[in-house]
Automatic annotation (TrEMBL):
<keyword id="KW-0813">Transport</keyword>
<keyword id="KW-0798">TonB box</keyword>
<dbReference type="Pfam" id="PF13715">
    <property type="entry name" value="CarbopepD_reg_2"/>
</dbReference>
<dbReference type="Pfam" id="PF00593">
    <property type="entry name" value="TonB_dep_Rec_b-barrel"/>
</dbReference>
<feature type="signal peptide">
    <location>
        <begin position="1"/>
        <end position="19"/>
    </location>
</feature>
<keyword id="KW-0732">Signal</keyword>
<dbReference type="GO" id="GO:0009279">
    <property type="term" value="C:cell outer membrane"/>
</dbReference>
<keyword id="KW-0812">Transmembrane</keyword>
<keyword id="KW-0675">Receptor</keyword>
<feature type="domain" description="TonB-dependent receptor-like beta-barrel">
    <location>
        <begin position="382"/>
        <end position="887"/>
    </location>
</feature>
<comment type="similarity">
    <text>Belongs to the TonB-dependent receptor family.</text>
</comment>
<dbReference type="InterPro" id="IPR036942">
    <property type="entry name" value="Beta-barrel_TonB_sf"/>
</dbReference>
<dbReference type="InterPro" id="IPR037066">
    <property type="entry name" value="Plug_dom_sf"/>
</dbReference>
<dbReference type="InterPro" id="IPR039426">
    <property type="entry name" value="TonB-dep_rcpt-like"/>
</dbReference>
<dbReference type="InterPro" id="IPR000531">
    <property type="entry name" value="Beta-barrel_TonB"/>
</dbReference>
<keyword id="KW-1134">Transmembrane beta strand</keyword>
<dbReference type="InterPro" id="IPR008969">
    <property type="entry name" value="CarboxyPept-like_regulatory"/>
</dbReference>
Length: 930
């Protein structure tokens, strides 16, 4: 016991201590206000800190002469000489001037040692200075901003995909939205309640709604491109996105408006490629953002942001070439009826493009020192948005004959049903941080909640129209909710071992809860079973009462994180994390990373780690029947597909196993080079092996099994799908960033950044080249493995997202005038048809345009999108910016195969996308900062 007490005292140290070093205060040169969060680094060492809420800092350091690097996002970095004498403290007060330069920023993500410069980090971290770049871009949401700035990040808006039309899924390194961990101010951000269940990219995944965080509230974003589950827990397989909120005082904001001014080939199929294009203006987007920060007493600060966005829908539909009205006497009478009614085929257009979204939110970020050693902090926000999107048009000819007369009495020309979303996102974090002797501590509680409710309009329940009931056109279809509460205790201390040892340890307790709320009866009920038609609201039937309810789980974790500066040139870090989940057991993960400086400007770095992703509660408990349209004999046919849980009776019948966690092994090696504080180059190569990846299977029919047929009928479904751990994958890639930053005479500056990523994602295969699929014996015996996981599923992992992306951004400023020019090259993507055998051309379908037998596979070539923005300082603190995204109106390739043409309606693929299909966007923005 005596030895243990001595050890504890040695670790915790005295509650107060004194050592020689440097202290001071950092302020804004313009208004003298304190700057919290400024990085202070002792050059050529890894000893550093950041300023507190009052701009003060203290560094304990041995006697000697040093260069102190002072850096803060948006300000010109400074290198200041300082001399420390034995037993004394040197005072260093610094005023910082605003600047557009962003070299030498300090990153906090991926390290618990108090921050390192980006070039000194043992793992690759991108820094996106959102508060600066929003002056020069037309994008108004975080997903789109990151897509065009960070090549490893990709988010394309989806269309005709139910809820995914309203919350954009996002990827890092081509992996799933749920394989990247999102933090806000270093604290875990909750996921969305939405499950992406339609047939688009990221099918079966659950992501985080980054767009629920107003861009106006964000100071910078750090993207850790490395596995970090041992440091932060579940989901951090591809990396970590840490969104850092603004802390500055004063008033700032922006007002912007833009819209698409474009031309696209709407009539490509109708006119056989001749005279196909139409000019269009749509997608008008208005944004108003306001940020205000002020002091509380001498040391505290409060920063508040409000933002409102109104985005109109876009539409890039093709003209429908199929049959509109039922035949009369075996004769198609579309032309006659259209003429009689004074209509054209344009009156039957679908809406294929961005959904309409209107909403806004508020964000609070605050820190208040309670004493010289303890601060209280809090941050969080409220966001609410309403969306509107449409599904497939229900043409009169496609309405089931048994209900057609009554439906056409309501909708004489058929109808285009709409999905209206109501999404509410709430987050709140609060805690205490400070010092107990030599130990830093951070005790916090973080809560987040996302609710997604569905309202269906311009629709009908087919089974209701032949009854005496009041026929509805609008339905409350229910919704989903997800909440998460996380309690963290983090401790850290630096020890004088070799050139510095940082010890961090901590514990976490997390509770997740997922809810399904049933829709109103008419949104799901089958009122006329004998009619044999789809029940529930057309386009999106409501959630069943038997699927409604709440599901929860909890987890506890503990971690140890060590970071040792062995020499001035060599740092070695290691982390170990143990977690226990109430629903699947334990997991233990590790990480080691190192960086070695060959010279002051050249370093090598490498890391190795294991990781995991707990299956989300959404994937475990989501259950619903959806209307899908599939191609049969050249026609689009509605199919009612039920998603069942892994512990359901249909899953048991088919031998679908219960979900377990995904596990990973990651390796990264790279180099960093910095020359004359102007050039900076980072190159990193990585490999990530992920076992037991979770997919949403395809649709199983009853196959003559009476028990399964009865289960499907009870859910108003004709097919069933499930979430399952189906395959293993290997991801390899190279990522590189080259930046140049300098000033010229005459108050001129230029910054250029060339960045690129090259990705190869593969499903693991056996020696014969066949994918290794973890299917049950029942599926193998009944020849249903291809339904479990098929070619299209494999293509979503391997080729449906850009395999490479490069960007070149140039910012030039002279006096009050500035220009931003950016070109982003989106690599090729491909679609693989799940229904064909690529080795048997005789089985391929006939292309409706060429008359030839062709596979439906298609590769869409790389495209370059060019953005430009011109800005001018009207007066001090007010800036005007005008510009264009996609200046040259570039679209991805049109379909050349027949299946996804869908009778002319889909000019561009909805299965695979590179940069969306909206075309040129013209915008103007006024920014102010006082």
């Amino acid at each position: 016991m005596k030895n243990l007490l001595i050890l504890l005292l040695a670790i915790l140290g005295p509650l107060t201590s004194f050592a020689q070093g440097i202290k001071g205060k950092i302020t804004d040169e313009k208004n003298g206000s304190a700057l919290p969060g400024v990085s202070i680094l002792v050059q050529s060492t890894n000893n550093g800190t950041v300023t507190d809420a009052d701009g003060n800092f203290t560094i304990n350091i041995s006697e000697g002469s040093y260069n102190i690097v002072v850096s803060f996002i948006g300000y010109t970095p400074q290198i200041i000489p300082a001399v420390v004498t034995a037993g004394a403290t040197t005072t260093l007060n610094v005023s910082m001037a605003e600047s557009s330069e962003v070299l030498s920023e300090i990153v906090v993500t991926g390290s618990r040692s108090g921050g390192r410069s980006r070039i000194d980090s043992p793992v690759p971290v991108d820094i996106i200075p959102v508060s600066q770049i929003t002056n020069n871009v037309g994008q108004v949401d975080i997903n789109q901003i990151l897509t065009y700035i960070a090549p490893s990040f990709q988010s394309s808006r989806q269309t005709i995909s139910d809820g995914s039309d309203h919350i954009d899924p996002a990827q890092l390194r081509g992996l799933g939205p749920d394989q990247v961990l999102v933090l806000v101010n270093g604290k875990r951000r909750h996921q969305s309640s939405l499950v992406n269940v339609n047939g688009t990219v990221n099918r079966g995944t659950v992501g985080t709604d980054l767009n629920a965080i107003p861009a106006t509230a964000v100071d910078k974003i750090e993207i850790l491109r490395d596995g970090a589950a041992a440091q932060y827990g579940s989901d951090a397989i591809a990396g970590v996105i840490n969104i850092i909120l603004k802390t500055r005082t004063g008033l700032s904001g922006n007002v912007s408006y833009g819209q698409n001014v474009t031309s696209y080939d709407k009539n490509y199929v109708l006119n056989s490629g001749k005279d196909a294009s139409v000019n269009i203006s749509d997608g008008g987007t208005a944004q108003v953002g306001l940020n205000y920060g002020f002091k509380i007493g001498e040391k505290g600060f409060v920063n508040i942001t409000g933002e409102y966005v109104n985005r109109e829908a876009t539409n890039r539909t093709g003209t429908y070439t199929g049959q509109i009205y039922p035949a009369v006497g075996g004769k198609i009478v579309d032309d006659e009826l259209l003429n009689t009614k004074g209509l054209t085929r344009n009156d039957f257009d679908m809406r294929i493009g961005n959904s309409k979204v209107k909403g806004g939110g508020v964000v609070l970020n605050a820190s208040i020192p309670l004493s010289t050693h303890v601060d209280f902090y809090a941050f969080g926000g409220y966001n609410h948005k309403k969306g509107n999107a449409a599904g497939f048009y229900r043409y009169p000819n496609g309405i089931p004959a048994v209900v057609r007369t009554n439906v056409l009495a309501i909708y004489p020309n058929g109808f285009l049903p709409e999905i209206n979303s109501d999404v509410t996102d709430i987050s709140a974090a609060a805690g205490f941080r400070g010092k107990l002797g030599e130990w830093k501590f951070d005790l916090s509680n973080t809560f987040g909640k996302n609710d997604f409710d569905y309202a269906i309009s311009n629709s009908v329940n087919y089974t209701q129209v032949n009854t005496a009931m009041n026929i509805q056109r609008e339905f409350n279809a229910g919704g989903n909710g997800f909440s998460q509460n996380t309690i963290n205790l983090d401790l850290g201390r630096k020890f004088d071992v070799l050139y510095g040892l940082n010890v961090a340890l901590g514990a976490e307790q997390r509770t997740d809860k997922y809810t399904i709320t049933a829709g109103e009866e008419s949104s799901y009920k089958n009122y006329d079973v004998a009619a044999g038609v789809a029940a529930g609201a057309q386009v999106f039937s409501g959630f069943f009462p038997q699927n409604a309810g709440s599901h929860s789980r909890h987890s506890v974790a503990g971690y140890l994180d060590l970071e040792q500066d062995i020499t001035k040139a060599w740092v070695l870090s290691a982390a170990l994390r143990f977690e226990n989940y109430s629903d699947f057991g334990n997991t233990l993960n590790y990480k080691v990373a190192t960086r070695y400086k060959i010279t002051d400007g050249i370093a090598l770095r490498a890391s190795a780690s294991s990781g995991f992703r707990a299956p989300s509660l959404q994937q475990r408990y989501y259950a619903k029947t959806n209307t899908l349209f599939v191609t049969q004999n050249g026609q689009q046919v509605a199919q009612e597909s039920g998603t069942f849980t892994n512990d359901s009776k249909p899953a048991e019948i088919l031998g679908i196993p219960k979900l377990k966690q995904e596990t990973s092994q990651s390796f990264t090696v790279g180099t960093t080079i910095q020359i004359n504080n102007a050039f900076e180059l980072t190159v990193d190569a990585y490999q990530i092996d992920i076992d037991d990846r979770i997919v949403l299977t395809n649709n199983f029919n009853d196959g003559g099994n009476a028990a399964l047929k009865a289960q499907l009928a009870a859910a108003n479904a004709t097919t069933a799908n499930f979430f399952s751990n189906a395959v293993d994958t290997r991801s390899r890639g190279i990522e590189s960033v080259l930046s140049y930053n300098t000033r010229f005479a005459g108050n001129q500056s230029i910054r250029a950044v060339l960045a690129g990523t090259f990705i190869q994602n593969k499903v693991k295969k056996d020696a014969s080249g066949k994918p290794i699929i973890h299917a049950s014996d029942i599926l193998v015996q009944t020849n249903q493995v291809n339904t479990y996981f098929n070619r299209e599923d494999m293509s979503r992992f391997e080729i449906a997202s850009p395999k490479n992306k490069q960007s070149l951004t140039i910012n030039y400023k002279v006096g009050k005038f500035g220009v931003m020019l950016r070109a982003v090259r989106f690599g090729e993507v491909s679609y693989w048809d799940p229904t064909i055998d690529p080795t048997k051309p005789e089985s391929w379908p006939v292309n409706t345009l060429t008359g030839q037998k062709e596979t439906l596979d298609q590769t869409f070539g790389a495209k370059i999108v060019t953005d430009i923005a011109l800005n001018y300082d009207l007066v001090k603190g007010i800036n005007l910016s005008i510009g264009a995204n996609n200046l040259f109106d570039v679209y991805q390739d049109r379909h050349t195969h027949s299946g996804n043409f869908s009778l002319g309606r889909f000019v561009y693929s909805r299965r695979v996308q590179q940069m969306g299909v909206n075309g040129r966007y013209i915008f103007a923005r006024v920014n102010f900062n006082f």
